[in-house]
Amino acid sequence: MKPTMDLSEALQSAFPFRRPLLPWAGYRLIEQSSIEDVWNAALCELGQSDRPNRRTIYIHIPFCANHCLFCGFYKNRAQENRMEGYVDRLIREMERQAHGLSEGGLVHAVYLGGGTPTALGADELFEVVSAIRRLFPLANDCEITVEGRVIHFTEEKIEAALEGGVNRFSIGVQSFDTLVRNKQGRRSSRKEVLMFLESLLARDRATVVFDLMFGLPLQTRQVWMDDLETAIALKPDGIDIYSLALFPGTPLFKAIKQGSIEPGASRQELGEFYAMGVESLSKAGWLHLSNSHFASGTRERNRYNIMIKEGAETLGFGSGAGGAIGRYSYQRDADLDAWSTSVDANTSTISQLSIADENESTRAMITGQLEQGRLDLTSVMRLRPVQLQLAKKLEEFAGKNLITNPEPRTALTLAGRYWSTNIRGEILQILNME
């Protein structure tokens, strides 16, 4: 069928707004008084759920040098008195549960996120990664990522991470433009960022990925194009392009609302910025691994991020870390003092535990497919009550130039990739799974 929208129109107005991905949809909170008993029972179910057999580990480092205006995850300033003892407690938390959590199979991806993991000292980075390798069964080709910022990421820390076993660095560049960076609380100038990245890439001892963000205040089309051209010219192994998401409560949201900072790109412009990114990277020969992620070659796999979207089990450690085992999703206490007290007392650090309904594997299947630019509804189209509704919805998507054809097996167009969370939401609503 011929789409009624051209690509430009679809990118701008296929939906009135972009839906956020709601990972907690279909989960029911467990009462606080029952968390410990349910958690112990969950450990007995390891390896017996419908989740993919490959597993991941997420380590949360909840410290930052400062609060970047766009960030909704800031928790603790990276001060010595706040960070003292954190790594020791983190390792004790892992040691306490390593045996029980190791029963479910090999770990294929490890991610140190935050916060800012590179706020840790060199010795601390080495200790954390070494503990993970000592305590958990890692696959021979396990992807071990450290997320970091340019500020405070010293030569000594890079070497310590590499010696500990890190084989992938994800650097939050966001923009190379000094004015755009400074406006968001990023202290390093374009020159300083380039010097650091060139030095890191010259080592050639690990995969290097850049995160770029589009839609930031002062980031014009030309600035965004310069960001893309600069990133491509540096020849990293991977590049992520993310749209600015204004979360209520962030400093940027408040500043824009108060009028002290001008808004970034409009809703219509964001789709255009995404198209510019995809076109630039595709023309340069990059592989489109997921909706936001590109690889310059086979060295970059983006394994952790893809596995998370596919619903893989995740072992989460550290204050504020989230994870998922069996049918359960859990959150460790995000209050640093409360988490520290629990670790010291050798009691559970889990502050929230949820159980998924029977549709979680289907939700994860659809989410994982869409993230990789495809859709196969063959299995759910067999459900007679929703056959007609799904068929009509696929025709609507094809008419809006979001998918290539209105068949159960189809591929997302460029606009479909941009609006993938909306596509997911509307399919799950029909299936009564959201």
UniProtKB/TrEMBL annotation:
Biological process terms from the Gene Ontology for this record are: methylation; porphyrin-containing compound biosynthetic process
- What Pfam families does this protein's entry cite? Radical_SAM
Q: Which SMART domains match?
A: Elp3 (SM00729)
The answer on whether this UniProt entry bears the keyword S-adenosyl-L-methionine reads yes
SUPFAM superfamilies recorded? Radical SAM enzymes
A GO cellular component annotation in the UniProt record: cytoplasm
A GO molecular function for this record? 4 iron, 4 sulfur cluster binding
- Return the InterPro entries for the record: Aldolase_TIM, Coproporphyrinogen-III_oxidase, Elp3/MiaA/NifB-like_rSAM, HutW, rSAM, rSAM_sf
Work out whether the entry's keyword set contains Iron-sulfur: yes
User: What residue stretches are annotated with the Radical SAM core domain?
Assistant: 49-284
Q: Where does the signal peptide begin and end?
A: none
Q: What keywords tag this UniProt record? A: Iron, Iron-sulfur, Metal-binding, Methyltransferase, S-adenosyl-L-methionine, Transferase
Q: What is this protein called?
A: Heme anaerobic degradation radical SAM methyltransferase ChuW/HutW
Instruction: List the lineage, top down.
Output: Bacteria, Deltaproteobacteria, Bradymonadales, Microvenatoraceae, Microvenator
